[in-house]
């Protein structure tokens, strides 16, 4: 592994070692000892959105698809690179027959299930790989497209490392050249894909091929799909940075590079006033920074000599530019965080020499390991970005921040401070931890549940007992059964069937709620479904006239209201639509886990929390009762939440009910209504019953004597229902029944 | 874009009602509903409200809820079944939005190919907007695509107060992938629409590391806004002064077509023999993002992607008031 910061020349070295370059200028090594294939991993950035949970939230299907797409994309890229390298070598007049036939044999074997014909030359292979990669990258737009891409292509292609092994094995019998793979720009591979490519470093591959990986400091993840690769055991780390002791060699290299880039310039020692020491010192071991500074100082212009003042100005500008870049907040490092840490290493003494070597001077020798996770992240980002450098070869590590390190000289000029490599400054892990407190971490995204196959649905449909309804029931049952989907309905007759209802709904994948007429039992079943985390798909009978207004039921608006009528054809179409809808993972808002404006709706239950819901038209009666109820709660040290409308924080009444019911241990729900039980109350009853499966809750339904509908919600357990005539009775129910647990509890 | 008064945006167009109307709800509540309010009398085949998830302050949540409530009211009047669809989704989860749009229109028997689509782009996230327009152009090809845009009266952003809290993770997202050689160097261009988030643009631009860059500077009637934009994007604008590979285009904020032509010209003028990849850094005004995207998509032989810097949370005070609603038929 070539391990080094930005612009240290890793890419240049790898390109120089790759096969076409080695063939065109073989003088670098005495004999052509190997054929190495250069693979630029930046192309893997095309599939980065796959692994970003904010772009494609994870679900079970997605998780599998993204791994398959990434693996096949990597394999296709590898095959493309090998094919193009062979074609290029052929163009240079080299005998590539052995490698080409090895590639053809390997490709025909690994792409047997996806290629339409047998490959006969490298050009065909590179063409196929190009097209397929473009197809995969374009498929990263919608889950359905990705699924299709997996079915057509990605699901049938092996992973990159076994494919390269197959190729190397075939090549061994055909050519005496040793095969190698050069993986450049490793840090561009999405973290989740790195195990796919780490496999190249495994020790057991060394008999077949060698692998060289170029990676920035602390960007390496050692994991494999199963297990890990280990430094020294599986691979060696080679730090490719120039230490102070390498300075003459570094300057010689810079001199050669710039002389080639500007051959008419007369050489840097002559052209740069004072030689190239100043710019090389301030390049921070980066050839790229050195060239940038030269360009800014006017080295490539017409001037005969670049003055010292111009060099100082160029370094200062470069330093200011890098300061801006190091101040950016990237990934989990917040804005200015990295710069603040760097700044803490440099004493504020303009015009004076400041230490460039920093030592973490905590009491024990493992100071660097006492860095918090956040601080460690900042320090790693600083090494990766070239703001911090290793002091010695022996400090190099893939995971541990060294106790002593060097601050890049480019940190100093923008502060008008001169760095000194002879001075040592001190800091502590505690000081860095303190500066790192504002680092943000995203919350892990939860997996949403999508049934792989839709097997059973709960029918929350009002069939009644008329002949037409019996026919409807039969149609639903038969059409769904023919489609391989079982149906359940709350048909256990009589009072108090809510336990059976809950059992049935929990057995189903989703609930079909008929909103043709919003009946109380349907609303309660919606409440139960939502409480159990089941998706509700609203349906309506298109022959029944105008559909119900759903403005208050915004959580049901996410799924299109599916029409049906009592014909076999129509119910078949409904069945297909339901299947389609079920493929999309339900959102948090649909399951009322989160409100539409982003408020979390399922807080933890509090033992001392009591809730009361009453329909808003009953406010005049409840106002009097509430005064006494509040006093009771106060005396018992209980927190009372009263709901009758949407809350002032912007939650709708449904959302408010969900939040309150989730929070409360005891809940009193008034369902008094003039024609039928109050619909919000019915929903709250259903939702609280579902939650009561997991949390102990005391739920009481009450109704005013002249507005009661015991048969309107027949499945409700009569033992949990109370009627009241006046405020005294109501308060009595609250105190005696809800809080005291008297009577039938 | 022309001032929009409801009905159609182009005098030449017939008074054909939209088949699909798409709007978004955001904490910029007045801006979210202004265009939809003007369309309330229309009868559309399918009205879709997209609600993006996001971390907001309490005040932001409240404002967003107001927008949702009003939009549901207005869209219920517009929708042919009096039942608009709400898509609740992540700010960057474009895959889900694309899939749901297709599914819901299929369920209503609407084919996008023959549809007249109207999108209120005012409060779309750049990623969702880019992928929606991309899908319209490359896959669904509706008969007509009209965009509506509500310009706010005030932007509250300044050097101290910004839309996003500055901590980003960078994400390149392919818009169009073409077969390309693995060994040949790809010529890389960036198109950066500048706005009030200089650090975010710089962050994304740096990750692109392009050979050539076209900066789109939005020209508006407010010197204050332009000054903020200039201050915020100081580093990139300085580069344009000293580096011939960085071009700065000053374009009116609402001029989609001028932006489209400028980008098309920028790309074609500099296209060499190498394969070309153009990256859009979309942190400017929405009409200019649409214009830049159209310009890129016009060049059929270039690869395209967006480089996005995703923030952790948004400020609820980004803009306020409504200065006007504008519309343009773009396809």
What is the fold's blueprint, element by element?
The complex is a heterodimer of chains A (745) and B (331).
Chain A: E1 2-3, H1 10-17, H2 19-24, E2 34-40, H3 60-91, H4 97-110, H5 122-139, H6 143-152, H7 160-172, E3 178-184, H8 194-198, E4 209-215, E5 238-239, H9 247-261, H10 268-271, H11 277-281, H12 287-297, H13 308-327, H14 337-344, E6 353-360, H15 373-384, E7 388-390, E8 404-407, E9 418-427, H16 429-435, E10 456-460, H17 467-482, E11 486-489, H18 498-507, E12 510-514, H19 520-531, E13 535-541, E14 562-564, H20 568-583, E15 609-613, H21 619-635, E16 639-643, H22 653-663, E17 666-670, H23 679-691, E18 698-704, E19 721-724, H24 727-739
Parallel strand pairs in A: 1-4, 1-5, 2-3, 3-4, 6-9, 10-11, 10-12, 12-13, 13-14, 15-16, 15-17, 17-18, 18-19
Antiparallel strand pairs in A: 6-8, 7-8
Helix pairs in contact in A: 3-4, 3-5, 3-6, 3-7, 4-7, 12-13, 14-15, 17-20, 19-23, 21-24, 22-23
Chain B: E1 2-3, E2 20-25, H1 29-38, E3 46-52, H2 58-78, E4 85-89, H3 94-107, E5 116-120, H4 126-140, E6 144-151, E7 154-155, E8 169-176, E9 187-193, H5 198-208, E10 212-219, H6 223-232, H7 234-242, E11 246-252, H8 256-270, E12 276-282, H9 286-298, E13 303-310, E14 319-320, E15 324-329
Helix pairs in contact in B: 1-2, 4-9, 8-9
